[in-house]
Amino acid sequence: MAGKPPEDGYISVVDEEPEIFALLKWDTAQTQKNFDVRSSERAKSPEKYIQKSIAEEADAFDMNDAAFLETFRLPKDLARSLCEEIKAVIPDSTKSLDLPIETKVLATLSYYATGKYQKSIAGKSDLNVTPYFYMTAVMQVTEAINHHTIVKKYIHFPHLRNERDLIKNRFYMKYRIPNVVGCVDCMHVPIAKPDNNHKKHFNKSYHSKKAQIICDSDLNIISVDALPGGSLSHEAILLKHAVKNDLESLNAARDTCWLVGGLHYMQKPYIMTPIPKITKKTPVSPEKHYTNLHMTTHNVVLDTIKQLKSRWKCLQASCNKHFDPSMVSMIIVACCILHNICNKRGLAVPQMTQAEERLEIMKQKVANGAVSKKRVEDPAGVQVRNALIERLWNERSANECIPPKKRVRKEREPIPQMNPVEDDPSKRPRVMMNNPYAFGMGMNHGWGHYPQH
Hints:
- By secondary structure, the protein is of the alpha/beta class.
- The protein has helices at about 30, 45-50, 55, 65-70, 75-90, 100-115, 130-145, 150-155, 160-175, 235-240, 240-250, 285-310, 325-345, 355-370, 380-400; strands at about 180-190, 210-215, 220-225, 260, 270.
- α5 packs across α6, α7 packs across α13 and α12 crosses α15.
- It is globular and about 70 Å long.
- The model is unreliable at about 1-5, about 10-55 and about 430-453 (pLDDT under 50).
């Protein structure tokens, strides 16, 4: 791969020992920045209200397991593990207010899960829980989760051949498309109108951050780019991302790797997109067969984004907008890390309400805009896709030609005949009829032990 990737914070998939760049480098000056509290209640001095530790008044870990999981989205053991990881990377300069790290982590998880500032940490009201406390806790914990060691641990694009082969095999076994290393799409996270570069974040309807998500077949997020503003297109974000350079290098080295993208992407040798003008009413053809498989595969990243926003409501369109764009970007990355943690444990995903789901669909559709009708596709990419279409159609035809397996009938064992001499009506077994309404039809009524209707 020639040159340095166009943006920081990406792990190269070509180098044997990938280099960690400084996208998520710790910024101690960020903690000293004075953020504006965008709510009716102004931030108040912590010395006036926080006179003793919140943990002394109510310990959230005393809650029952079900209530704890519903409130913080993590079970107690994962929450404690997260606290231990954050302790190792959080700077001493941010350990203000003399509050334990567990209280800050739980306050942050509560904000992520609801998108709102709560008035309690452990289920009962507390005057010490103020907007100032919440903003400070969310900023400090979010910056700690964005430490490059934690990001590298939980969000990892496959940079080794055996890792890529494993993902390819999983996609092929599930969705029958070969050489797929990930599904890609973007999501909008609304923000308040920024003081600077507001045009960069305006997406035809509102201001937002546009995060690019790449996931594997098991809905694990393997790459996230949360820096772009909402005005950029899907294609523009991918072209500036280092994964594009790595995929081109891998394909040039005959290690075929593809992403699966939607209609907002242009067909390239490294990304497979659907064929335009193919609908449900289109007759069966190789192109229609490819489009059906492609749509099923691409739904993986759509389900990943839906689960991400269902579990962490701070990413939804109705969330409170308290932070500047740079902090919102770090919140998105933190939620992606927590999503992978929950997904690895196999935790159930809370469902959106119908109103929330309708609002999200409408907001995303308006922000993305209509698909451009003037699609200029790369001829080399179209050639690669045509070869894939032919391969998938041939595999389908081969599977249809395989005759079904014949069922082998097992020989029934002969039924032993009863000796008529020893046939005692009182010792005959009780017979249960399948049809209760046909009782007594064709039966010997001499069975006195059978119950009468």
